[in-house]
Design brief:
- Keywords: Membrane, Transmembrane, Transmembrane helix.
- This is DUF1772 domain-containing protein.
- The chain crosses the membrane at residues 76-100, 121-139.
- It comes from Geodermatophilus telluris.
- With 140 residues, the protein is mainly alpha-helical.
- The protein has one domain (1-139).
- 86% of the residues lie in helices and 0% in strands.
- It contains four helices and no strands.
- It has helices at 2-29, 37-68, 76-105, 110-139.
Length: 140
């Protein structure tokens, strides 16, 4: 039971983080003076990695553990659903969000910024669904 509770805590922490980024952090990008934006963007990337890295590693670890050594009584379907949600988050991050941030490194780009907001909404929704799946594990 400890594993599923830790897994729920990690998924909920990441979902809360992602919604904070989507609702608070990214909208403020448009308010940064254009001349200062490249430095702001690079600082954002460094700082956000310190939070998201451990959350990704923790979720990845608990997800793999649940997939490879699922404790007795833990249903498979929510484990698979949660793994799918994490795969979406990681895939969207690596394939879409990271390249958009790299474009923004050169300076504020309205098109890249709008795309980042859309991509981040997908991440936030997938993270929320992963938390629901983790809650299902805890509640049985």
């Amino acid at each position: 039971m400890t594993l599923v509770v830790v897994h729920l805590a990690l998924t909920a922490a990441y979902a809360g983080f992602q919604w904070t980024v989507r609702g608070l952090v990214y909208p403020q990008f448009a308010m940064v003076p254009r001349a200062a934006f490249p430095g702001y963007e690079r600082a954002h990337q460094r700082r956000v990695s310190r939070v998201v890295g451990p959350l990704f590693a923790g979720q990845g670890g608990t997800t793999l553990w649940l997939l490879l050594a699922r404790p007795d009584g833990v249903p498979l379907l929510p484990v698979l659903a949660g793994a799918g949600c994490l795969a979406v988050v990681l895939g969207v991050t690596g394939l879409l969000a990271v390249p958009l941030h790299r474009r923004l490194d050169a300076g504020f780009d309205e098109h890249a910024f709008r795309a980042l907001l859309r991509v981040d909404t997908v991440r936030a929704l997938a993270a929320t669904a992963g938390t629901v799946a983790a809650g299902w594990l805890v509640l049985g």
